[in-house]
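Record pair follows.
FIRST:
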Amino acid sequence: MSESNPRPSFSVVAPSNAQVVTVRCVGKSGSTVREFSMRGGLNLWVFLRKHGVPVGAACSGVGVCAACHVTVSPGGNVSPANEFEQESLRRHGHDPQSQRLACLCRVWGDVTVSADYW
């Protein structure tokens, strides 16, 4: 990420040795909305959309709108949030300590995610 282009970039290509992980999506009621497998290291937003899970996308997945905010279960094995993501969450009234932007989140191991719009 450079100063002239503050948007992080991401690839949908996982490392060839990446393990297969399970993503469980939980709705407001606490029930499982969807569960699917993906290769570890890939972008959560891309796979939620690919598997038919509704997720916000006003900025096309570049992290500026925060429409794709989700809660990752404690201990979820995901990439750490960077300053850009934390500021975007704050700017849109979300808690960067408990929420993530799916478009900037890579999944490294099994994880449960929830959203107040599922």
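SECOND:
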Amino acid sequence: MVDKSKLCAIFEKVKKELPNTTQFKLNAGKYVGTFNTKKLWHLTDQSDYIFFKYMDTDADSIQQMVESHIAACVLTDKGNSNEQE
């Protein structure tokens, strides 16, 4: 399968799963909806890798750098290395 076809297939999966990521929060007394796209990372990682292949000959290294950066910056239920106690 060529990259364009792979991206189209991933896009269809994202469209299908996106409604399941809806969440609401209270903002100024009103509930506001948003998407928790963290739940789609298993798909977006796949599409990211396709683009990384065109950025450098070592897509694995780029993906590892991106994942390391995200791990250092994004709060998860397991906490984060920059979080103060």
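COMMENT: Confidence is low (pLDDT under 50) at residues 79-85.
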